[in-house]
Amino acid sequence: MCPVLGHLDGRFESADAEAEHRIAVLYQEFGGPLLRHVRKSTGNDLQWAEDVVQETLVRAWRNSARLQWEPSLIWAWLLTVARRIVIDGRRRKSVRPQEVEPPEVDMMAVPDGSDRALSAMVVADALRSLSAEHREVIEQTYLRDRTISEAAEILGIPPGTVKSRLYYGIRALRELLRDKGVAG
Amino acid sequence: MHDGVAAYVLGVLDEEEHEAFERHLDTCERCQAELLELAELPDQLDELKNASSTSDDDPPMSMSR
Questions:
Q1: Which residue positions does the secretion signal occupy (chain B) (predicted)?
Q2: C-alpha distances in angstroms, A10 versus A5, A6, A71, B20?
C-alpha cells in the first residue's frame, strides 16, 4: 500500500475531489522541503521555485504508481522531476548568449570565506581528481545544461559512450566526495 | 540500460530517453538503489554552478594539468 497516499483510498465521492485531496496531501508531505530545495537552483527566485514545485507535484500525481514507493525513493524521484523542470526553464529563460561559455572548473571555486565557496572548492577538487574523460563528460553535460546528445555532438563521440562515461564518472565523484566527508 | 541512471539523476537525457529510463526504473531495484545513492550529487555540482556565476567576468583558464 502506498505509504503516503494509501490511507485515502475509497474516501471520496468524485474523482476530482480525490485528485484535489491527493495533491494537497503531496504538498503537505513534500511541498515544504521541495520548495527549500528548488529555491537553491532558481537563484532564490521564489515565484519560479513555487511554480516548479507545483508542476513537480502535479506530475507526481499523474504518475501515482510511483507514489507507492518508499518515501526516500519518492523524494529522490521528485528531485529529478524538479531538476528537469528547472533546467528546461533555465534553457527557455536563458538571457546569456549561447556562445558565452561558463568558466572552467579551475575558475569555479574561488574561495570567499563562505561555506558555499568551501563546498564548491571541495567539489572542484574532486572533479579535478577524476580522469580527464570522466571530468569532461560531467562538464559538457550537467555543468553546461546540455543533454547527452548535445554533448556527444560537441565531443565527437557516440551518445552511448557519453552516457557510460558519465555513469562511471559520477560514481567515482560520489566515492571521492564520500571519502572527503561531504554529505550526500 | 542501468548506466543511464547517472544521466537520469542529472536530468541530461532527452525527453524520450528520460521517459524510457523512468519506465525501467519502475521495475529495476538496482537502479532504484543507485538513484537513492546519487540523489544529492547534483546539488553538490550545483555548488560549482552557483560559485561560477560570481566569476563570469574573469578570464577563462585551462583546467588541463
A1: none
A2: 11, 10, 22, 32
If pLDDT is split at 50, 70 and 90, which confidence band does A41 have? confident
The whole-angstrom separation of Cα A151 and Cα A50 is 30
DSSP-assigned letter for residue A65: G
B27 touches chain A (CB under 8 A): no
Of A64-78, A114-128, B12-26, the least confident: A114-128
Dig out the grid coordinates for A184 from the structure.
550526500
The hierarchical CATH code for the domain A105-179 is 1.10.10.10
B35 close to A (CB below 8 A): yes
Contact (CB<8Å) B12/A171: no
**Are the C-beta atoms of residues A180 and A126 closer than 8 Å to each other?**
yes
Residues of chain A with CATH 1.10.1740: 6-93
Q: Which residue bears the cell 569555479?
A: A108
Low-confidence ranges of chain B (pLDDT < 50): 55-65
Which CATH class name applies to A6-93?
Answer: mainly alpha
Q: Which residue of A has its CA nearest to B45?
A: A123
Find the radius of gyration of the CA atoms of chain B: 16
Cβ distance B6 to A116 less than 8 Å, yes or no, reads no
Whether the complex's predicted ipTM surpasses the cut of 0.85 = no
Residue A112, pLDDT > 70, answer no
